[in-house]
Amino acid sequence: MPFWAQLLALALLILCSAFFAMAETALMAANRYRLRHMAKRGSRSAITTLWLLDRTDKLLSLVLIANTLINAMATALVTAIAIQSFGHDDNVITISTGVVAFLLIVFAEISPKVIGATFPERIALPTSMVLKPLMTLAKPVIWFVNLFVTLVLKLFRIKAGAHAHEARLSPEELRSIVLEGGNFIPQKHKSILLNLFDLETISVEDIMTPRSQIEALNLELTVDEIKRELTTCYHNKLPVYEGEINRIIGILHVRKAVALLNQEDELTVEHFRELLSTPYFIPQDTGVFTQLQYFQENKERLGIIVDEYGEVQGLVTLDDIIEEMIGEFTTSMPGAARADSFGWTEQGECLLEGATALRDINKRLGLNFPLDGPKTLNGLMLELLQEIPDAPISIKVANCIIEVVQVHDQAIKVVKLIRPAAKRAH
């Protein structure tokens, strides 16, 4: 062969080797979820790519067989060129082997594989249209080679494809995908998706209105006092109890009760009792996502949370769960929005009520208070101090200084959070 023809053949062999190396890397790095989305939209190349990826053993066999043969041919060709040009000498063969190894590593391995990993889908889609017919043509060779591969795997007791169907994403992996979505997912949508993942890990106790803050109606009051409470309440539904909050006997629809106030007959407590609907009780360790399903199945919107002794711990509504998913969209009481919209001041301080939920503090202030114990700031402080403080005291938790400002009725009512960096600046 003429010298130029030999060089042209060598260049073609290196290009073919680069093609298979680049195709292999691109196919292995391609995003299968994106490919499935494209396949559902009718992309033939995406369908072909998924077909190849479902036959990974045969695909890798084709690529490696082709690459090995091409690289062997390139090595032989370079050696032949070197012998023809410089004679049959051991040093010539050694140098030619080093040259062909360098050419293959740079131009047929590293460079094409870097390109394939950088643009996986862009390269995998067109190359799959070439690899599929090649796989059909090379089917006998692939079958013959795989006979020996299967034998080797059996010797090591390895079952090919045993874990192929177990590669499913965990919730934490899905969370990572959402977090890395970048500009492809709007920030609000990203926040909603992340909140949905959290529903599996939190219980109704984490989002409930605590017992001390429940607005409820006591039927042991006089009718005039009941009327006064109904006309000044801020909710559509009220839990109703007799004597003390643990004896809840029903749920009162305020609109129905207000309608009674306009009647001419004399009102009695029994009139209000007749309007009560059956209360819906929830164990305090019920998961939020599970409770959302229970609300849907039982056609309920409000539940009373009780502990293992049957004592009332709090109240949760369907609105509470929805706000946990999509963020706050409504306020049930005047001033509620202002009470929740806390943040750091320019001095790095934040004044909070002791009843503020730790989860809300972590979300709004970017802190990392522990959530596996007490649910409120007051509970956290009492657990750490092991007593109710009778004087101003400070404690450092999760790199944040918590200073007790006011204690009242055996509870810490007001605290001040101070970021250490802000304190040092002063």
Automatic annotation (TrEMBL):
Residues 208-267, 275-332 form the CBS domain. It is a multi-pass membrane protein. Residues 1-198 form the CNNM transmembrane domain. SUPFAM superfamilies: CBS-domain pair (SSF54631), FAD-binding/transporter-associated domain-like (SSF56176). Keywords: CBS domain, Cell membrane, Membrane, Repeat, Signal, Transmembrane, Transmembrane helix. It is found in: Cell membrane. Residues 1-23 form the signal peptide. It comes from the Bacteria. The chain crosses the membrane at residues 59-83, 92-110, 130-153. Belongs to the UPF0053 family. This is Mg2+/Co2+ transporter CorB. It comes from Duganella violaceipulchra.
